[in-house]
Amino acid sequence: MINFLGLCVQNLFKSFKYLFSKQLRYESVIEQAAAISYDSLPISLIIAFIAAAVIAIQVSKQFLMSGADTYIGGTIAVIMIREIAPGFAALAIGARAGTAISAEIANMQVTEQVDAIKTLKIDPVGYYFTPRIIAAAITVPMAVILAEVIGIWGGLVISQMTIDLHPARYMASVWAWISTRDIYISILKASVFGILIALVCATQGYRTKGGAKEVGISTTQAAILSTIYMLIADFLINLVFYIM
User: Fold this and answer.
1) Domains in the chain: how many in total?
2) pLDDT digits over 11-25, tens only?
């Protein structure tokens, strides 16, 4: 884990160096943005909706019995924005797009396409990593924002269905509870998660050696490692902003 983390940091510095080398193709960034976040958007939104619906089912009846039904919207909104939407959406993107990144680069490595890039005096780390990291850092927050909106709306629908909570009361609670600070932290988390997904999965794929069997093993390990690093980053970000 420590050696792999060091390798990820080295690749991140190489990617930033490549970013300012004027060799970056922005068409590649757009292609990766579509592959990473746009193609993963349906599953991310479905997960956000279901998560908010489950939370609404769990809290609606208890809040109604205690006379705190006006707090349902705010509770769901805060939970979605602070934790559920960034975490679940990033995990969905990592499971889908992250493994695809790892498999693609691992396949290039075992078929010696990476060596062919080196013969052209092009840094393969910058060439393969930089567009994916930039695309993930920009588009994962966009997917998370949409997931938050869908999650809050899903909580409204379920609350109205289960306890007949009026939408105006629900939304009044939402606007009263959420703050711009929560949204900024959510966007920061999503951007960090996006960078980790692209960096960890690309690094795992890049260090793959062997054949088709090793590509499959590397893809599985990439999914596991990206999840672990995202959870660690989530804890550290929450700890830093709690102290602040």
Assistant:
1) 1
2) 899 888 888 877 778
